[in-house]
Amino acid sequence: MTTEPHRLSLRVVVPPLGTRAGVECRPIVDGRDILTDVFDEGPAEDPRYLLGPNAPLKNATDVPREVRLAEAGCTERCCGAVYVTVRRQGQYVIWSGWRNPDAEEFDLPEFRFDVDQYAAEVHRATTDHSWEWPARTVARLLEERLREHTDWLTTWDCELYAVSAWPWEPEQITIFLFHPGWSAIGENRPWLQFRMTIPISGDDPADQVEHLEARLTAEDPREVAEVCGGSKESADQLGYPRPGPRRRA
């Protein structure tokens, strides 16, 4: 007897602004939140990861890909996470191979989704930004613009890491940069991380993005940012003060 495919929904959950909790993208299968009964150590992943550029849930192929759906609030190394392996098989997208690094026995059933329903739901969730607050919209649009024009950062020997907006800081965005770049960490070369915190108003997000892009690309970002990551030794070698207290850009 042929089994009907499961049905996927991706539900974005936004905590009350001002509270210290993250935005979650929770997988709902046949109307059931599948993480609820098996993992209470932390939130589901942020939609920025699951649904943003290069999103791991998009474009399932016959090459299996492991995706993290949730992580313990105290980090994966401490209390675990939830992983699933995603692959396409004919007219189905299959979720299987569930694991939690912190649990020897961790089991969820295999889910088989119709490929068209699956793709339509991932597309819907990816393009629906109605849940965003103004700073989150500005962060998303500004990061898209800055990644389209990387020459300004190349000039200053920097690499964009992220433009973030969090519910507990609802009226600001934070820009993170690496100098000279992310690859320096793996290559055991001196590196620093810089941070710029910028207030966001209730004005039109697109107008704010245009203004911020012009402002940011007109100057060396290291002159207006603060060092927030890296070692004292790296700071000394690169000619910057060691990571210190946070300040606004």
TrEMBL record:
Q: Which domain of life is it from?
A: Bacteria
- State the residue spans of region: Disordered: 220-249
What protein does this entry describe?
Answer: DUF2199 domain-containing protein
